[in-house]
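Consider the following input, taken from an annotated entry for Alpha-glucoside ABC transporter substrate-binding protein (Modestobacter marinus).
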Amino acid sequence: MNTRARGLRSVTLGGGLAAALVLTGCGANETSGGDSGGGGGDTADAADLAIDCAPYEEFGDLEGETVSVYTSIVDPEDQPQIDSYVPFEECTGVDVQYEGSREFEAQLVVRIQSGNAPDIAFIPQPGLLQTLVGTGAVSPAPEQVAANVDEYWDESWKGYGSVDGTFYAAPLGANAKSFVWYSPSAFEDAGYEVPETWDDMIALSDEIAATGAKPWCAGIGSGEATGWPATDWLEDVVLRTAGPEVYDQWVNHEIPFNDPQIVEALNTVGEILKNPEYVNGGLGEVQSIASTEFGDAGLPILDGSCWMHRQASFYQANWPEGTEVGPDGDVFAFPLPPIGDAGAPPVLGGGEFTTAFNDDPATQAFQTYLSSPEWANIKAQVSGPGWVSANTGLDPENLVSPIDQLAAELFQDPEAVFRFDGSDLMPGEIGTGELWTQLTEWIANDKSSEAALTDVENAWPTS
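Applying the prediction step yields:
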């Protein structure tokens, strides 16, 4: 068993995010990867949680002030957010007015253009933050927020919340994508060890394939968004084969999209996803990956027709009711291993950013609260599975889900490199358009890596 899994509690998840939790230990406490933690369980009552009010006194007398929050986090996932604001409201006398909308991105722009911007919005992509800053409507983060982010986050997060060298938005929630799901009981029965390196993982895949079984199952189907799971595979491997500096250059188009280093990374992905000896366990041949819905792709692990499935921490919501998720449960996950002598495995992920549209004292005080470890721990205690923060002041034991605990540990590893989901940073016509299309062709029609990436390069906007 991977040593990172020791001491983690198991949790039984029902279908969907409104899960029924059964904790086998004692105690309790994304989309764009947003807040997905509204799901029952033994969570704390926000009214019973207290914070030190001193940090907010410097903003003056805020009694009777209001702060409006606009977000894509909607019912039922909104309630833990609302509950987590109670200690701040009790400290300051501020009334936080929460509004979630399924039309968030389109309506936020309309509201800004009409002069009706909220006080704070939770922005799910750095690219959208940059666009909004360009309107002149976004206020820089106050020094108290900057101090919190400097102390409690990896420096890359501050960069994603900055535009042209000015820091605007602190990170809020986060999700980790670099996981491989498996069955601990099946591994134990077969005598398989959780791989610590990429070579170990390939050797394990070969060992499983030699028995006549298929070690991997995968699916990139997602309606009009078909192809996005393949982008995560590619991004994860670019980080491992080419490194974070090349990753940044690639995402920012400082090197061609079809640079040889990126072709090499996609070919490395193909050694798994396009290998008929490896895939697609319980689902079909290689081409079935293109038509298999991503939410169904890992389910063959449960009947033993597949052994491993690479997907983010949020996949915990896709297991059927009664599935025990934990290091000794029906399913769990291990970090996608590093390639070569890379040390700790890189972490690919996403998250939201707290963006303010004025510099009122009440707004700045609330921004400060949301960037604090106190808020992160309270949010963890009032949430169910599916929420985590990259705030290093978060105690992983306050998270109810063992996968969320593992994600928090990865985020807090000082040796681990974090990078934001690359397709979310690219121009929309690439990251949520041509790249999806070409990677689907790469699977469905066995298009070569070089040809697929060249077509994406040719589609990159000129301005």
